[in-house]
Amino acid sequence: MASINTNVNYQQVLSMALEERSPVWQDIVSDAIPLFDVLRRKGLWQTYSGPRIRQTLLIDLPEIQWYGGYDFLENPPKELFNDAYFTPKMAAVPLSLTMEEILNNEGPNQIFDVMREYIKASEVGLAEGMDTALYGDGTTFGGRAIGGLGLAVPITAANGLYGGINRTNFPIWQTSSYNINSDFPTIGTQFTSVTAKPILDEVMGLHARGRRGPDLLLMSPQHWDAYNQATISIQRITNENGVGRLGFRTLAYLGPTGTAEIVFGGGLNSNMPDNTTFALETESLRLRYNPERNFSKLFEGDGQKPINQDAIAQFIGWMGELTMVNPRFNFRLYDSAP
């Protein structure tokens, strides 16, 4: 008797293929996006629970007192901490096959290969979708995307709510933004091989204190080319120990405030804004995620079969948000008239 293949059998094959790949989904996203890789290596992919993500902020410090003998020691009431609240965002990448595709590739080995290719395509879509959201401001998909660097480090630093806090009313919650065309009159109005290093030295100095300061510079192709040309006449320093190990084009910035990793943010279909550098203190950022939805299957078991469609389906899902705990060491460098 000829064997009978049912949707259930193929749902199980799909489930097996997904189980084979699921341990590497987090790797795929972090390896494809430099900022996410740095955050993951530093243990800054962190879980949350509840309907909102609560991010505790240090907003003040107790003051030192110098005293002698029987001097009174003061202990004035002071609010040291407050909270920012972020709304978790949900994302999913579909993976589906019609029974026509399945039957045209019938056979356990052949169909398993086909499913692997579909899974790989979904993985690419997952990484590219997260990359797009990273550089966005959270307004795409009707405001359901994560609040990326476009929101966290905006051009207008004092504009709008972030984490439920009004940046206009609370300057302590503002990142910084510098327009190359107008903010460096003694250096120049363009980001070129001549001005790139002096501009970075000046602005990096404004956002460093002790060992703290930006340690990751995401550069658009225009800024990368200018800085790369600037280092030809001095000493170009490459960095292959950080995200450079993943194959990204990287350089090392060395200035009066220390070092930072420079990453090329351009390329085919890049989502990085032109003529822009994001200077980030990665210790101040978090990728918060729900432990039940961290690049994992949306449906338990063998996926779903639509009621009125001859197909099988599954999704790779994620839920969380990119958050910040201290904006003061992050800035955006852009050119309004390149």
Structure, described:
The protein is of the alpha+beta class. Helices cover 28% and strands 25% of the residues. The protein has nine helices and 14 strands. Strands 7-14-11-8-10-9 form a six-stranded mixed β-sheet. Strand 5 and strand 6 form a beta hairpin. The longest helix is centred in the middle third of the chain and has 27 residues. The radius of gyration is 24 Å and the shape is globular.
Determine the structural class based on helices, strands and strand pairing.
alpha+beta
The count of strands amounts to 14
> Tell me about the biggest sheet?
6 strands, mixed
**How many distinct helices?**
9
Annotation keywords:
6-stranded mixed sheet, disordered N terminus, 338 residues, 28% helix, 9 helices, alpha+beta, 4-stranded mixed sheet, 14 strands
How do you describe this structure in short?
By secondary structure, the chain is of the alpha+beta class.
Which helices and strands appear, and what pairs or packs with what?
Layout: H1 7-21, H2 25-32, H3 34-41, E1 45-47, E2 53-58, E3 81-86, E4 89-98, H4 99-104, H5 108-134, H6 140-143, H7 149-152, E5 161-162, E6 165-166, E7 176-179, H8 196-206, E8 216-219, H9 221-230, E9 250-255, E10 258-264, E11 276-280, E12 285-297, E13 311-324, E14 331-334
Parallel strand pairs: 1-12, 7-14, 8-10
Antiparallel strand pairs: 2-3, 4-13, 5-6, 8-11, 9-10, 11-14, 12-13
